[in-house]
From TrEMBL:
It comes from Streptomyces laurentii. InterPro entries: CoA-transferase_III_domain (IPR050483), CoA-Trfase_fam_III (IPR003673), CoA-Trfase_III_dom3_sf (IPR044855), CoA-Trfase_III_dom_1_sf (IPR023606). Residues 408-419 have a biased composition (Basic and acidic residues). It comes from the Bacteria. Pfam families: CoA_transf_3 (PF02515). GO terms for molecular function: CoA-transferase activity. Keywords: Transferase. Residues 374-419 are annotated as: Disordered. This is Transferase.
Length: 419
């Protein structure tokens, strides 16, 4: 938050200020990694202004079906709590407006192909002189040097970054994850980097440029598989739903549908054997330790499959969970959200709060909870409002002794006009 901005007390009945209230984010991000990160910041109170191309906007606005409220659900899922400004950055007036916004921002996020922002006149070296405290976050696919020419699409990174080589059935083709997981992980890393850079600015007064790539984010997320390769030279291969280092940690067929066992300790394995009526398995030298079980995983799977097939997945879930054995059925998304509801976890946002199809912010804060102030914006919905606010701020800041006002905000809890 800039020094001249101060927190206003919350009005009676209004949403309490979030942990990031007062933070202004100029969001040039598109598609998923950048917008996902800035939505998380917005949930926590940051004022996020999304800069989009006139006429078309963020590519994901048209990535459907499915559509809801006349917009692609892909876009709706990562753009709540933001305001949209449509600016032609190739036009001098549009560029000047963008520069004025950047000059007043705490954070800039962009995921254009490397070099694009420099050509537009919005590169870090071009804007830092007028805003030395700016945290400038660039999200790239394969870095800004040798890999700058490569298109940063999630599927390509899953392929070239090794994730597909360890996903799928043994001997089968590489398989991608069911969502753009690399984009999501990169967005989380970018958010962590931004918060760390803001902490550095709090101490020193200086901003900085940070860069996070999809490729290095994925490699970091490969954790134990990457560590095994770097430490031993082993090249992991796909094991389907099995774990390379733990057994039984896989899928079995119950009498009605698949059941996952995630047995991580010898104690859990002994409890499993007792509950399925095969206590002798826990004393069999082939299965007594995890290392032995991994070496004899095929024999163990056969021994467990027969008793597990005699009852339903839900019945095993209740009995084995009570015995301390981690297990559960494979839910579809309807079942997953129903399970979260059963646990009392706020996994979804009411449609009236932030538009249709919104998954709740995943972090629960005791004092500064996430808030859902507004639905994902229509393209350019706030252009006139934002530009008028920038003009007013500029005029007042030129008057001696008169502090520049903050950018205009939606009233707390107010749903944007036109929803």
């Amino acid at each position: 938050m800039h020094a001249e901005q101060e927190e206003a007390p919350a009005a009676a009945g209004a949403l309490a200020p979030g942990a990031l209230s007062g933070l202004v984010v100029a969001d040039f991000g598109r598609v998923l990694a950048g917008p996902y990160m800035t939505m998380l910041l917005a949930d926590l109170g940051a004022e996020v202004v999304k800069i989009e191309r006139p006429g078309t906007g963020d590519d994901t606005r048209t990535w459907g079906p499915p559509f809801a409220d006349g917009q692609a659900t892909y876009f709706l899922g990562v753009n709540r709590n933001k305001r949209s400004v449509a600016l032609d950055l190739t036009d001098p007036e549009g560029l000047a407006a963008a520069r004025a916004l950047v000059d007043r921002a705490d954070v800039l996020v962009e995921n254009f192909r490397p070099g694009t922002m420099d050509r537009l006149g919005l590169g870090y070296e071009q804007v830092r002189a007028s805003n030395p405290g700016l945290v400038y976050c660039s999200v790239t696919g394969f870095g800004s040097a040798e890999g700058a020419h490569l298109a940063g699409y999630d599927l390509l990174v899953q392929a070239m970054g090794g994730l597909m080589s360890i996903t799928g059935e043994p001997g089968g083709p590489g398989t991608k994850a069911g969502v753009a997981l690399v984009d999501v992980v990169t967005g989380l890393h970018a958010g962590l980097g931004v918060l760390a850079a803001l902490r550095h600015r709090d101490r020193t007064g200086q901003g900085q440029r940070i860069e996070v790539s999809l490729l290095t984010s994925l490699l970091s997320a490969l954790t134990n598989q990457a560590a095994a390769h770097l430490a031993t030279g082993t090249v992991p291969r796909p094991l389907g739903n099995r774990h390379p280092s733990i057994t039984p940690y896989e899928v079995f067929e119950a009498s009605d549908r698949p059941l996952v066992l995630a047995v991580g300790t010898d104690r859990q394995f002994r409890a499993l054997c007792a509950r399925i009526g095969s206590p002798g398995l826990a004393d069999d030298p082939r299965f007594a330790t995890n290392t032995a079980r991994v070496a004899h995983r095929e024999e163990l799977a056969a021994a467990l499959s027969r008793p597990l097939a005699t009852r339903t997945a839900d019945a095993w879930f209740e009995e084995l969970t009570a015995a301390g054995v981690p297990c559960g059925p494979i839910n579809d998304l309807a079942g997953a959200f129903a399970f979260a509801d059963r646990l009392g976890l706020p996994a979804r946002v009411p449609d009236t709060a932030a538009g249709p199809g919104q998954v709740a912010h995943p972090v629960a804060f005791e004092a500064t909870p996430a808030a859902y102030r507004s639905a994902p914006p229509r393209l350019g919905e706030h252009t006139a409002e934002i530009l008028a606010g920038l003009s007013e701020r500029s005029e007042l800041s030129e008057s001696a002794g008169r502090p520049a006002p903050a950018l205009p905000r939606d009233r707390p809890g107010e749903r944007p006009v036109g929803r």
